[in-house]
């Protein structure tokens, strides 16, 4: 009898244990539950951040966030009150995060940074230095590091973020797409992401280059809805040229020719056009580049300095002839135009090199990295002194243009 | 595996012991006291007894006749009206009784009469001699007609089973574009015949049992001798014999009573309404259980993969069938996971979807009074109610429901801003995906689990979904059906069996039957059936 009851007690204990485990697991699920719950309709999706110098000078920076007003974006959806698809909030602070949190005094929703697509840096701020601004983006797990960075040329980032755009209802989408479209069709600017910027600070001491954007038209009309109903818009953002940095501080903007030259040398041109003077007559013709690639070779010169050999290979076709006397049926003509095109590419690249070495004295070309990767021994010697030695590095640019066609027409109608 | 299997058998055995104790008690209350007693010799007494036992039921017909032999023996024909085929009854039983003149019968003793009748008079197929009341009532209530003779306690039963039953129609639950149009009926004999017509082999064996003390329902086990695993058969017989229940009204009763795993939403015994699908399973070495009174035939052992197979897969070209297979797996996952993934994304992981989609969703959520998980939960519930209502509604009112459901729920609720359109899209797409599964029973499991996953997603996001899915996988890999792991051939992996899972291999590649089933006879195709490259080679 006693044995039976002992067994019963044992069974009771086992049941207790099971109950305890169940209770604990229920607790661990329910108590831990919802700890990261964010209601979608309680979020303010930040599309872009803009950083400027604090004009009052009291604090380090002035941060602007472009926040989507979801109810206005989808016009067809019900419940929208009609209005601008985005709005901006501006706050000053000594750090980015401080300014962001201070913004909560103005927003009814929590700002949400996981969909932020762009960081725009005002020209003044860019001259002061950009590296402190990207630390938060790299460090905070909520913010992506593949957001692209741009410099607002000649104006504040805040002003740019307040600009209404016609082609995309969310202004930052327009600016974001602009660079990609330009990179894919003209090659004068290229996308630079935060993670690339951070990678540059490593070995090789590459200096940063960022695309820049400016505002055209009547600036004071930029933030009015009226801007949207005019054809063309009174004020609209437009891409400018690349901005070159030294030690994270903006030094100068490149000229268009240098800008594309740099893009050739960085292997960032996807497609572009080259305008050439016709060989035997007045007028111009256009070669469209479908594919471009660059190969660097690093050689050691007798004095121990590196010699950089850049080889550009361009594939394209003739797409427009506005002058008489160009016989595209003749292979010799095609070869001649190919030579002309490669000459233009070469001169653009050399212009960019001259600018970097002589005027900027900043390794925006990434040659330090090339030397480090290909001739580590030379790099070891030059590493400490690279900034001073970079302008002295000799280079050789060669370009081969390979023309593969002349469109779907033979002779030009221009006689 | 083997150990596991034995344990399964052991458990069934234990159950039998427990149940027999319970059954004894049962018998004392229920069992009719006359069971083993022989019939009376006197006709009048018999008639009185039958009428008394059956409460003078009006549908029990007594037809008294007199034989034309020298002593004018009185004969009593008893049958239940509606359960016999009147025409056959007249032609093969009543008319011969009337017409026959018995030269020899004149001298025959009364107890020789039944044998004589059986041999010379009755021209129906099944004729039995009845000795006790138990047999008597069994036959009577199966729709036989019984003939009793004055002066002997022997009787004869003659099968004239008939009466109105539903004819063979297209199966209602398993539609197919290509393939036979016939589905099982409620009559077990028609059903067994339909299978026999598919497999014309003497090796197709059939064992019949009667289960249900009051309903006396015929239950058949059908299998191909030599293909079906003897151990599984033995186990199945044991489990069926252990069933002591008053009534079996549908194969669902049997299904529930022979299952190994009770605590699971997943069906471990499959039910099929198509004879061709049953035949296919028999050819793979499985066993079919037919129950009288239902068109749903059970198949054991069942693995999860079977619920994604449709008989049509084997009639279509294999590439198309493979595409459809994958579609079914994907649809099952959608039906299971889509609402919970939506809730998890909207409430926890807003960073995981494209910006434009996020903005659209956010715009839709604008001004919606409920949090996303509650919204999804409510809409799922509404859908389940609609679905159940449409099934149970008189078909005349079905249209009303679909209009009310479609318009009111779908449109007005969104227009009123009570739920967001995205949830309606998610719920309706989930609903459509859940109908892709050819097996209704697995669909029900997905319906239940959907709510569990929804709960997990609304408290823990993707982490919660991951947890529940992991638990489900653990659970699934723990289920066995007659010793066969439920997740076979994925876990444990049977590489050869993968030919008929996510893909449906061309028939000439499916040389072998599924592993672990037709153990003694694994080869399906003896000859190499590879397609010829050139004619004549």
Describe the protein in words:
Chain B: InterPro entries: Spore_Ger, UPF0353/GerABKA_families. The complex is a heterodimer of chains A (415) and B (537). Chain A is of the alpha/beta class. Helices cover 35% and strands 28% of the residues of chain A. Chain A has 14 helices and 13 strands. Chain A has helices at residues 2-32, 70-73, 96-102, 123-128, 131-139, 157-161, 171-185, 194-200, 226-229, 256-265, 331-360, 367-374, 376-382, 386-389, and strands at residues 43-53, 61-68, 86-93, 110-112, 118-122, 148-152, 209-217, 235-246, 249-253, 272-277, 284-300, 306-321, 394-403. In chain A, strands 1, 2, 3, 4, 5, 6, 7, 8 and 9 form a nine-stranded mixed sheet that branches. In chain A, a hairpin with a 2-residue loop joins strand 8 and strand 9 (249-253). In chain A, helix 12 (367-374) crosses helix 13 (376-382). The N and C termini of chain A lie far apart (120 Å). Mean pLDDT of chain A is 89; it is low at 76-80. Chain B folds into three domains: 2-16 and 166-302, no CATH class; 43-159, no CATH class; 318-481, no CATH class. The two termini of chain B are 46 Å apart. Chain B is elongated and about 100 Å long. In chain B, a hairpin with a 5-residue loop joins strand 6 and strand 7. A five-stranded antiparallel sheet of chain B has the order 1-2-4-5-3, with helices on both faces. Mean pLDDT of chain B is 85; it is low at 1-15. With 537 residues, chain B is of the alpha+beta class. The chains are: A alpha/beta (415), B alpha+beta (537). The interface between A and B is medium-sized, with 30 and 26 residues.
């Amino acid at each position: 009898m006693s044995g039976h009851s002992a067994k019963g007690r044992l069974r009771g204990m086992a049941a207790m244990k099971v109950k305890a485990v169940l209770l604990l697991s229920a607790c661990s699920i329910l108590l831990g539950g919802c700890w990261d719950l964010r209601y979608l309709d309680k979020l303010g999706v930040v599309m872009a951040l803009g950083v400027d110098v604090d004009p009052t000078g009291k604090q380090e920076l002035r941060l602007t966030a472009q926040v989507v007003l979801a109810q206005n974006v989808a016009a067809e959806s019900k419940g929208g009150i009609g209005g601008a698809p985005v709005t901006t909030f501006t706050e000053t602070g000594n750090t980015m995060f401080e300014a962001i949190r201070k913004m909560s005094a103005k927003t009814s929703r929590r700002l949400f940074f996981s969909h932020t697509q762009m960081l725009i840096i005002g020209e003044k701020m860019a001259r002061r230095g950009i590296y402190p601004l990207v630390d938060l983006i790299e460090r905070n797990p909520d913010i992506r590091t593949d957001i692209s960075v741009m410099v607002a040329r000649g104006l504040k980032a805040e002003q740019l973020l307040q600009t209404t755009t016609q082609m995309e209802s969310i202004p930052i989408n327009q600016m974001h797409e602009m660079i990609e479209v330009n990179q894919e069709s003209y090659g004068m600017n290229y996308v630079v992401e935060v993670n690339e910027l951070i990678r540059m600070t490593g070995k090789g001491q590459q200096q940063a280059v960022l695309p820049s954007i400016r505002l055209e038209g009547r600036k004071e009309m930029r933030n009015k809805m009226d801007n949207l109903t005019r054809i063309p818009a009174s004020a609209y953002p437009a891409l400018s040229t690349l901005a070159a940095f030294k030690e994270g501080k903006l030094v100068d903007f490149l000229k268009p020719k240098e800008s594309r030259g740099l893009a050739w040398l960085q292997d960032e041109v996807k497609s572009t056009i080259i305008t050439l003077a016709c060989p035997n007559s007045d007028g111009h013709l256009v070669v469209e580049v479908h594919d471009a690639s660059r190969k660097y070779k690093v050689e050691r010169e007798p004095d121990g300095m590196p010699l950089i050999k850049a080889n550009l290979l361009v594939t394209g076709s003739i797409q427009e002839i506005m002058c008489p006397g160009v016989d595209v049926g003749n292979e010799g003509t095609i070869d001649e135009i190919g030579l002309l095109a490669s000459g233009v590419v070469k001169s653009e690249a050399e212009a960019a090199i001259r600018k970097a070495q002589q005027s900027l004295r900043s390794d925006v070309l990434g040659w330090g990295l090339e030397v480090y990767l290909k001739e580590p021994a030379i790099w070891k010697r030059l590493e400490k002194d690279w900034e001073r030695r970079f302008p002295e590095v000799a280079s050789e640019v060669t370009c081969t243009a390979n023309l593969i066609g002349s469109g779907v027409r033979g002779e030009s109608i221009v006689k | 595996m083997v150990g596991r299997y034995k344990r399964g058998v052991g458990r069934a055995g234990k159950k039998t012991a427990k149940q027999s104790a319970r059954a004894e008690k049962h018998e004392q209350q229920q069992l009719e006291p006359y069971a083993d007693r022989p019939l009376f010799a006197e006709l009048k007494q018999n008639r009185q007894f039958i009428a008394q036992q059956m409460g003078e039921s009006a549908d029990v017909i007594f037809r008294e006749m007199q034989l034309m032999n020298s002593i004018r023996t009185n004969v009593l024909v008893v049958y239940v009206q509606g359960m016999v085929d009147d025409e056959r009854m007249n032609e093969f039983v009543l008319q011969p009784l009337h017409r026959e003149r018995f030269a020899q019968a004149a001298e025959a003793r009364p107890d020789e009469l039944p044998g004589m009748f059986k041999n010379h008079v009755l021209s129906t197929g099944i004729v039995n001699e009845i000795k006790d009341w138990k047999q008597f009532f069994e036959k009577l209530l199966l729709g036989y007609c019984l003939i009793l003779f004055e002066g002997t306690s022997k009787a004869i039963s003659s099968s004239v089973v008939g009466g109105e039953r539903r004819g063979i129609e297209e199966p209602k639950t398993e539609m197919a574009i290509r393939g036979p149009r016939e589905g099982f009926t409620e009559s077990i004999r028609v059903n067994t015949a339909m299978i026999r017509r598919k497999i014309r082999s003497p090796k197709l064996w059939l064992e019949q049992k009667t289960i249900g003390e009051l309903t006396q329902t015929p239950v058949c086990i059908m299998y191909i001798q030599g293909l079906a695993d003897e151990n599984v058969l033995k186990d199945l017989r044991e489990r069926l014999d252990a069933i002591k229940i008053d009534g079996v009204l549908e194969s669902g009763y049997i299904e529930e009573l022979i299952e190994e795993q009770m605590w699971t939403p997943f069906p471990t015994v499959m039910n099929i309404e198509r004879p061709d699908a049953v035949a296919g399973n028999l050819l793979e070495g499985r066993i079919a259980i037919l129950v009288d009174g239902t068109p749903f035939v059970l198949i054991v052992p069942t693995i999860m993969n079977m619920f994604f197979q449709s008989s049509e897969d084997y009639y279509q070209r294999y590439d198309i069938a493979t595409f459809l297979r994958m579609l079914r797996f994907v649809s099952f996952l959608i039906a299971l996971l889509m609402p919970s993934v939506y809730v998890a994304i909207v409430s926890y992981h807003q960073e995981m979807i494209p910006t434009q989609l996020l903005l659209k969703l956010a715009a839709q959520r604008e001004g919606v009074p409920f949090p996303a998980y509650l919204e999804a939960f409510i809409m799922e519930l509404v859908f389940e109610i609609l679905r159940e209502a449409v099934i149970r509604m008189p078909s005349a009112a079905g249209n009303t429901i679909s209009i009310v459901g479609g318009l009111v729920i779908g449109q007005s609720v969104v227009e009123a801003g009570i739920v967001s359109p995205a949830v309606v899209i998610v719920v309706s797409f989930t609903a459509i995906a859940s109908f892709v599964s050819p097996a209704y029973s697995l669909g029900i499991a997905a319906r239940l689990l959907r709510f569990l996953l929804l709960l997990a997603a609304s408290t823990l996001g993707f982490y919660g979904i991951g947890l529940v899915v992991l638990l489900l996988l653990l659970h699934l890999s723990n289920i066995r059906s007659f010793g066969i792991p439920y997740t076979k051939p994925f876990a444990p992996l049977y590489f050869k069996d993968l030919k008929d899972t996510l893909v449906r291999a061309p028939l000439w590649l499916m040389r072998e039957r599924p592993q672990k089933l037709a153990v003694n006879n694994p080869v399906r195709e003896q000859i190499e059936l590879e397609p010829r490259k050139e004619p004549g080679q």
